[in-house]
Design brief:
Blueprint lengths: L3 H14 L4 E8 L5 H15 L3 E8 L6 E3 L10 H12 L3 E5 L1 H12 L5 E6 L2 H4 L5 H13 L2 E4 L2 H10 L5 E3 L1
Parallel strand pairs: 1-2, 1-4, 2-3, 4-5, 5-6, 6-7
Helix pairs in contact: 1-2, 3-4, 4-6
Length: 174
């Protein structure tokens, strides 16, 4: 399985943040039948296996235990910031983990401002890089990357492409 080494590395990275933690995932879907859904599904299942308490906010419902389909897409994603912030405050999370920067990393960034929550962004492909080249999104996406506790890239190529557009010292390949 191509995804397995990367997922195992993400689990180890989370364990290095805090010995006992609660994580809120922001994802497109938890369906193991799609690429992003499969990655999210495996990450959450792995975290739970390690004893990490996990909740999931998604855009599309898949029936995964603990998943709430409340996130919006496109420009309406900004409407999700309040929902996520309320969840972060009420749930007392240690980490909010956004799978992709656009839009979930931006949502996680804005929702966690001023809160004692670490924000982690997984950078997996074009949606991690393309917004850096678009006038309408480059500033907010760069801000989200800079403010994140960690930006976890699935390849050296993705890391190099991000670093062409924004200087980061919180980025690594896993």
């Amino acid at each position: 399985d191509v995804c397995a080494p990367s997922i195992a590395n993400q689990w180890r990275t989370f364990k290095s943040f805090l010995p006992c933690m609660k994580v809120l995932y922001l994802v497109h879907s938890m369906s193991p039948l799609t690429g992003w859904g499969r990655m999210a599904h495996e990450l959450v299942a792995g975290c739970r296996e390690l004893g990490i308490e996990v909740d999931v906010l998604s855009e599309k419902s898949s029936g995964f235990p603990g998943e709430k389909a409340v996130l919006k897409k496109s420009w309406r994603a900004l409407l999700s910031v309040g929902v996520v912030r309320k969840q972060l405050i009420n749930g007392r999370y240690d980490i909010v983990h956004s799978l992709e920067v656009n839009p979930y990393g931006v949502i996680g960034h804005l929702a966690s401002l001023g809160l004692p929550v670490r924000h982690v962004i997984s950078a997996t492909g074009a949606y991690s890089v393309r917004p850096l080249y678009q006038f309408a999104t480059s500033f907010i996406v760069s801000s989200a990357y800079k403010a994140a506790s960690a930006v976890l890239c699935i390849s050296q190529y993705i890391q190099d492409e991000i670093l062409k557009k924004v200087f980061l010292n919180n980025i690594r390949v896993i």
